[in-house]
Design a protein that fits this description.
This protein is of the alpha/beta class. 40% of the residues lie in helices and 17% in strands. It is built from eleven helices and 13 strands. Helix 2 links the parallel strand 2 (28-32) and strand 3. Helix 1 (13-24) packs parallel to helix 2 and helix 3 (64-73) packs parallel to helix 5. The structure holds nicotinamide-adenine-dinucleotide (NAD) and UDP-4-deoxy-4-formamido-beta-L-arabinopyranose.
Length: 344
Amino acid sequence: MKERILVTGGTGYIGSHTVVELQNAGYEVIIVDNLSNSRADVVDNIGQITGIRPAFEQVDCLDYAGLEAVFAKYEGIKGIIHFAASKAVGESVQKPLLYYRNNIVSLINILELMPKYGVEGIIFSSSCTVYGQPDQLPVTEEAPIKKAESPYGNTKQINEEIIRDTIHSGSPISAILLRYFNPIGAHPSALLGELPNGVPQNLIPYLTQTAIGIREKLSVFGDDYNTPDGSCIRDFINVVDLAKAHVVAIHRILEKKQAEQVEVFNIGTGRGVSVLELINAFEKSTGVKLNYQIVGRRAGDIEQVWANPERANKVLGWKAEASLEDTLLSAWKWQLRLRERGIQ
Ligand code: NAD
Ligand code: WQD
């Protein structure tokens, strides 16, 4: 029998790509999502790609009884991948309580239900934001956690601690914390991708919306940083590569291969790319000229960060594979498809 995996936030950007890879790897997936930042038709699109329509429950992770009903309905869930969270950094500064409640209470509900229903392990979506501006680059998992720059970032730090404390207290579950760097791109089918809400705050959706004419011009936030071309540097990780990291991680938990009950992995490419380099790569791979302008720095931006992904490479046997050019092309095809569908 196929092993059952519950994916919270499974209709979202990273979640939907992960559901595809889980199904391709032979897992049975149950998605829980309240659709606060995603669309129900994502479930159909996953079905179109994989030939299997995953089970979908429109449930809010804040609703303990609703969530418990899912565990009871789908007996024998083995593992959980917990994506469901609010993720807009700027909004979290405006509405901290919404972020603390949604991101923290959701996790607490899940951690309480797991042992009750015999669920063995959880994979948690953490972020490189926990490192702030690292003292050494590339950053390893041992780097100190810096004071969070936003309530959103703080929820990731607190959630990591909640998981560690819960396991330390004797909970029989295992956990893998995946610290993602900057996920970008879309499924090569252009059936799944990122759906930003309102004016995008992140680089790639703003860039592709500019390229297609929804936005007039991309603002590059600063060219006076202490980097080779003066713009910020990030580790842009292809979303399908990122999705595959979850498959090997869940496998590791279910095969009981973990060296410790809580493990943490950086999920990045190991390559730092500047904002200006990325714009060049986009123009080269798509043949589309981008209208952009250098403006002042954005408050709270980290100057440069990229991963040392060696632990994930060696221990998980996972490695980022997609080229930056192919990844940017996939983001562009997704933007074109959104227009065809009349969405954005
Ligand atoms: P997303 O907004 O596309 O997906 C999150 C999904 O969770 C959405 O479908 C939303 O409707 C759902 N959701 C939110 N709150 C919920 C709740 N209370 N109950 C049920 N469903 C709920 O975001 P994403 O980019 O796919 O991010 C997934 C996870 O990865 C998040 O935890 C995010 O913080 C983390 N992460 C994202 C990035 C990034 O740059 N995208 C980087 C690092 C970490
Ligand atoms: C990337 C670079 C901007 C928009 C955020 C969160 C982080 C993580 C990923 C979840 C920066 C520059 C951007 C624009 C620009 N999420 N930029 N013009 O800031 O690295 O990380 O998302 O955990 O927590 O903080 O990503 O895509 O916003 O920015 O020049 O219009 O692009 O200054 O250097 P960031 P981003």
